[in-house]
Amino acid sequence: MSALDETARPLPANDPGVPRKRGRALPPMLRHPAVLAGLAVLLLVGLAALAAPWLWTGDPILLRPRLRLRPPSEAAWLGTDAFGRDVWSRVVYGARVSLAIGFAVSAVSVLVGLTIGLVAGYVRWLDAVVMRIMDGVMAIPSILLAIAMVTLSGAGIGTVIVAIAIPEVPRVARLVRGVVLSVRTEPYVEAAIGAGTRLPKLLVRHVLPNTIAPLIVQGTYVAASAILTEAILSFLGAGIPTEVPSWGNIMAEGRQAFQIAPWVILFPGLCVAATVLAVNVIGDGLRDALDPRTARGVGVR
Amino acid sequence: MGRFILGRLAATLPVMGVVAVIVFLLLRLAPGDPAAILAGDAATPEQIAAIRARLGLDQPMLEQFATWIWRLVHGDLGTSIISNQPVGRLILDRIEPTLALATSTILFAVLVAVPLGVLAAWRHGTWVDRAVMGLSVAGFSVPVFVLGYLLIFGFSMQLRWLPVQGYVSIADGLWPFLSRLILPTLTLSVIYIALIARTTRSSVLEVLGEDYIRTARAKGVTEARVLRRHALRNAAIPVISVIGLGIALLISGVVVTESVFNLPGLGRLTVDAVLARDYPVIQGVILLFSALYVLVNLSIDLSYLLFDPRIRY
Amino acid sequence: MGKVVGKSVGSGWPATLGLLAALAGTAPALAQGKPVTIRAVMHSGLRITDPIITTAYIARNHGYMIYDTLFATDAAFKVQPQMVQDYSVSDDTLTYSFTLREGLKFHDGAPVKSEDCIASIQRWGKRDGMGQKLMEYTASLDVVDDRTFKLVLKRPYGLVLASLGKPSANVPFIMPKRIAETPADRNVPEEIGSGPFKFVKGEFQPGLKVVYEKNADYVPRKEAPSWLAGAKTVKVDRVEWINITDYQTAVNALINGEIDYVEQPPHDFLPILKGASGINLVNFNTLGMSGMLRMNWLNPPFDNAKVRQAVLLAVNQQDYLDAQIGDPDYMVPCLALFICKTPNATEAGAPKPDLAKAKQLLKEGGYDGKPVVIMQPTDLAISASLGPVTAQALRKIGMTVDLQAMDWQTLVGRRAKQDPVSQGGWNIFHTFWVNADLLNPVNNVGVNGRGKAGGWFGWAEDAEIEALRNAYALETDPAKQVDIARQTQERAYTIGMYFPTGQFTQPAAASAKLSGILEAPAPVFWNVEKK
C-alpha cells in the first residue's frame, strides 16, 4: 500500500523527457530545515540499529516472566513487556528489523518493478499481457494479499518482505513503463534507434536517467509505508515471528496491555512515527528537488 | 463514446480473470487445511481425510478451478466451508457496514482535504502551508490501530461521548448509526485526508503556474475567482484520480478499522476467512473488492470527460 | 404465538416488532418494556453449530443453550438425571433402563421420544472418545416405549453414566431423530433441541452474532441448579452472543455498558475491570483450565524417550504461569495430570526441574542439534505465551529452537500432519483445555497411547498405558479407579506424553446488572437475571 500514489502515475506524454542532471538536484533540498531534520532522525535511527549491542542493551529475547509489565525504571529504561523482556533492548534491536524491512521492501519492489516496466515498455507483444497481470495484482487489496501470503506460507522476515513488496511492484512497473513509452517517441531516441544503438545501451543511456528520480522518490514512500504495513500485519496476527523484535511486533504484542502498560506500545510507536515521518519528509524534499513542475509552482508567488 | 465505454468495460474482464487465477493459486498452493479445522481438536487423520473428500478438496487443482469458475459464471459464489452458508449471502450480510464506513470516510476526507489542500497551495510557503503539509505527512506516520485505540481511549472511555464499538443500521435510527461511525471514520480518514490534501495542493500549485492563470491575473480577475474558476476545475483531475487509487488504500484500512471497532463488515469477514482457510469466502470477497476497485477506477476515467474538456476519447 | 415468532426473522425493526408482539402474547407484564436481553461476548465466534462434529468449546456452549442432556454432572462430580426421570441398572450391571421426564418437547413442538435419544447417542458415539468406548461395549440400544429405552452392555462397564453425563466436549446432546440421522461428519441442517433456549435462525450471522430466545415450553427440574445439573430456569427473554475479536474493544465496551458479559477477558485486563465500577468478575469455572505442552513422537528428536524426559526436566511450570497469567490469584501450580482437587489428583511421577540431568539425558538421547520446530499461535492469547517459554527452556539445555509464529487455524491444520519436519511436520505445540476434559485416563486425550492408529496429535504410542486406560474404563470400584489413574500418570510422565504447563482460572467479567451466574465448567445462561 503505497501511501503516496501521486508520484506513481505514469508521466503524461507531454512531460519533458529530457534527461535531467542528477547531481545538481540534491544540494538545494538539503537547505530545507525539515529535510535536514528528517535526515538527522534517519541517521540517528540507523546508527542506533548498527550499534545496538553497545547501547546498554541486553538480550532482546530473554524472557523473565516474573518481571512482566514493569514500568520504566533504572533497571529497565523503557519498562518490560508481557514476557518480562526489556523494552529498550527490543526497541533498539527492533530498529534493525524495521529499517531492514523498509529498505528491503523498497529495493525489491523497485528492482522487480523496474525490470517488469522496462520489459513491458520495450517488448510490444509482452506489454499487454504483463500489464494486465500488473492490473490484476493492483486490483487485489494489498493488505488482504499480504495477509493471505503470510498466513498461508508461514511467518518469516523473508515472507513478510515479499508479501509487502509484491503489491507495490505494479505501481513501479507502470511508472517505468510510462517513462519508457514517452522516451521512445523522443526524436533523439528515435534517432539513436535509427542509428542502430543496441537495446541495453539504449535503456542505460536514455531510459534509466529519466526513471531514477521518480523511482528514488517512490522508493522512499514505499519504505515508509512498508514499516507501517509490517506493524499492521503484526497487529492482524500475520507478521514476522514474535520473538524477533520489530517495532510492529512490539506494538502488536503490547496492544493488549495498552491501558495498563502504555510504555510497551508508546516507545516503539514513537519510533515508527518519527522514522516514517523522516522518510516521508526526505521523499517530499527529493520530489520537490527533482520535479521541475512543482519547482515552477514555487516561483509563482 | 459509447464504444469507448464498452471497450473499457470489456478491458476489465481480463483483469478480473487475472485476479481470479492469482487468488485461486495463492490459496491452493499454500499449506493449511480447512478439513482439519472443521474436524476439530480430537479428530483422527481418517476423519480429516473423509471431510476433505466431501468438500472436493482432494480433486485435482485444475478441476477445482474449473468448477469454481463455472459456478462463478453462473452467478454462484459457492458455499462457505466452515459455516455452510452461501458466500453471496455472507457478503450481503456484511456489506452494509463496510459501505457505510467507506462512504462516510470518502465524504469526510474530501470535505476536509480539498479545502486544506487549496489553502496550502494558495498560501504556498507560509506557515499555513507548512502546517497542512506537516500534518498530512504525520497522517501517514501513525499505525491505524494505534490511532483507533487512542480515539477510543479519549472519546469513549475518558469523555464518554461516543460508543466504543459496534454497528447499528441506519434503519434503526440516525444517531445510533452516526455515533458508531464517527470514530472509525476519523481513524480511517486520516491517511486519506493526508493523501488527498497533498495531491490537491500539488495540482493546484501546478495549475497556478500555468500561463492562462497568469493571463487571468494580469487581466485583473480576482484571486478568489482565479482559484474557483480556473485552478480548482483544472486541478480536479489528479484529485479525482487519487481518490480512485486510494480505494485500494481504503480497503486495506477498512480491514484494520473494522477489527478495532468491531464493525461486522467485509474486512473482518475476509480476515476470519483467511484464518479459517474458508477458500470460497476468501475467493468471493477478494474478487468482489477487486471488481469494486476496477469499476471505481473505470468510472473515474469516464468522469475525466466531465471535468476536462480537453480530454476526448 | 408460534406463528408470530416464526415471522420474526430478519433483523432491524420487523424483528423487534415481531418479538414485541410475541411477548405481548405470552407475557403481558413485559408488553410495555423492551425484551430483557443479555449481550455477551464469548471467547470465539460460532461458525459450526453442531456440537457433535466439533470439539470447539464455542459449539459445546451453544449446545448447552439449545439442547438438553439425559444426565448431567453436578458440583460434587456426581452424575444426576436431567432429561431422565428414573433409571435402573440390572443386578448383573449389564442392562440400563432409562425413563424420560414427562412434558419434554423439542423446539419444533414434537415430544421427545426414546428413538430421538437413541439416534442422538449413536451419532455422538461415532465422534466422541468416551462415546466410541461406550459403543464398543454396547450390545444394543432399544426402544421400550415412547418414554423408556434400554442400553444393554456386552460386559460390565464402569463409565456408562459418566459418559452420558459428560460435562464437556463432546457432550451427548439430544436432538430429534430426523436431525440426529445426519452423517456424523456433516453439520446438522437445523438447530433444534429441547433445551432452555431456542436458536433464532434468521438472526444468526456465522462468526459474528448468535441470538437465542427463551424457550417458554421448557419444564425445568425441581432440584436447585448445581453445575450442569438441576433446574434450568431461564430468567431473561433473549441472549445475544456477539463476537468481538479485539479484547481491548470488548473490555471497553463492557465498561461503557454496551455489552453485559465477557466470557474470557485476558488476565492482563483484570486489574482494569476490577477498578471499573459496575463490573463484577465471576469465576464460574472454578475447576479451571490447563495448558499442555505436546511433543511429536513421530519426528526426531522426540521419537526418543530420553529427549522427551529431558524436556520435562528442563521446563518450569511457574515460568509458564507467570508469562501466561501473571496474577498469582488466578494461577494454580499443579502437576496432577487429572487435575488438582478432583478424585484422581496426585503428584505421583511428576518431574522436578533439573537442568544438569536434562542435559545429560539429551546427550544420551543422541540429540544432534537440529532445530526443534515449536508452533506458536499468535492469535490465541492464552496459548501464544507458552511457546516462547518452552523455547527459552530448551535453549538453556542446549537445544536449537525454531519458534514459528502462525495463526491457530494454521496450527490446527499443520499439527494433523504426520510428516517429517522438512515436509511440513512439527515438533512441539501448546494448547489448553477446560479441566473438565482432563479428569480421568479415558477422557484426557493427552494420555491416549494409541499412536498413529487413533491417537491424538503427537501420536504417543504405548501399549502399557492403553492397558491401564482400558482397565480404568472397565473398573467399577471408584477406589481402584483412583489407583489406576495414579499408575497411568506415572507411566505418562515416565514416557513423556505431555507436560502440564499449569492450571489457572479464567473469570468472566459481567455487568453488575447480571445476577445468578452459575458455577459450571461451561458458561451457561439459565438462572441469570438482568436488572
From TrEMBL, chain A:
<feature type="transmembrane region" description="Helical">
    <location>
        <begin position="260"/>
        <end position="283"/>
    </location>
</feature>
<dbReference type="Pfam" id="PF00528">
    <property type="entry name" value="BPD_transp_1"/>
</dbReference>
<keyword id="KW-0813">Transport</keyword>
<feature type="domain" description="ABC transmembrane type-1">
    <location>
        <begin position="99"/>
        <end position="283"/>
    </location>
</feature>
<dbReference type="InterPro" id="IPR035906">
    <property type="entry name" value="MetI-like_sf"/>
</dbReference>
<comment type="similarity">
    <text>Belongs to the binding-protein-dependent transport system permease family.</text>
</comment>
<keyword id="KW-0472">Membrane</keyword>
<dbReference type="InterPro" id="IPR000515">
    <property type="entry name" value="MetI-like"/>
</dbReference>
<protein>
    <submittedName>
        <fullName>Glutathione transport system permease protein GsiD</fullName>
    </submittedName>
</protein>
<feature type="transmembrane region" description="Helical">
    <location>
        <begin position="215"/>
        <end position="240"/>
    </location>
</feature>
<keyword id="KW-0812">Transmembrane</keyword>
<keyword id="KW-1133">Transmembrane helix</keyword>
<dbReference type="InterPro" id="IPR050366">
    <property type="entry name" value="BP-dependent_transpt_permease"/>
</dbReference>
<keyword id="KW-1003">Cell membrane</keyword>
<feature type="transmembrane region" description="Helical">
    <location>
        <begin position="143"/>
        <end position="166"/>
    </location>
</feature>
TrEMBL record, chain B:
<dbReference type="InterPro" id="IPR035906">
    <property type="entry name" value="MetI-like_sf"/>
</dbReference>
<protein>
    <submittedName>
        <fullName>Glutathione transport system permease protein GsiC</fullName>
    </submittedName>
</protein>
<feature type="transmembrane region" description="Helical">
    <location>
        <begin position="281"/>
        <end position="307"/>
    </location>
</feature>
<keyword id="KW-1133">Transmembrane helix</keyword>
<dbReference type="Pfam" id="PF00528">
    <property type="entry name" value="BPD_transp_1"/>
</dbReference>
<dbReference type="InterPro" id="IPR000515">
    <property type="entry name" value="MetI-like"/>
</dbReference>
<dbReference type="Pfam" id="PF19300">
    <property type="entry name" value="BPD_transp_1_N"/>
</dbReference>
<keyword id="KW-1003">Cell membrane</keyword>
<feature type="domain" description="ABC transmembrane type-1">
    <location>
        <begin position="95"/>
        <end position="304"/>
    </location>
</feature>
<keyword id="KW-0812">Transmembrane</keyword>
<feature type="transmembrane region" description="Helical">
    <location>
        <begin position="235"/>
        <end position="261"/>
    </location>
</feature>
<feature type="transmembrane region" description="Helical">
    <location>
        <begin position="9"/>
        <end position="30"/>
    </location>
</feature>
<feature type="transmembrane region" description="Helical">
    <location>
        <begin position="99"/>
        <end position="122"/>
    </location>
</feature>
<dbReference type="InterPro" id="IPR045621">
    <property type="entry name" value="BPD_transp_1_N"/>
</dbReference>
<keyword id="KW-0813">Transport</keyword>
UniProtKB/TrEMBL annotation, chain C:
<feature type="domain" description="Solute-binding protein family 5">
    <location>
        <begin position="78"/>
        <end position="435"/>
    </location>
</feature>
<comment type="similarity">
    <text>Belongs to the bacterial solute-binding protein 5 family.</text>
</comment>
<dbReference type="InterPro" id="IPR039424">
    <property type="entry name" value="SBP_5"/>
</dbReference>
<dbReference type="Pfam" id="PF00496">
    <property type="entry name" value="SBP_bac_5"/>
</dbReference>
<dbReference type="InterPro" id="IPR000914">
    <property type="entry name" value="SBP_5_dom"/>
</dbReference>
<protein>
    <recommendedName>
        <fullName>Solute-binding protein family 5 domain-containing protein</fullName>
    </recommendedName>
</protein>
<feature type="signal peptide">
    <location>
        <begin position="1"/>
        <end position="31"/>
    </location>
</feature>
<keyword id="KW-0732">Signal</keyword>
<dbReference type="InterPro" id="IPR030678">
    <property type="entry name" value="Peptide/Ni-bd"/>
</dbReference>
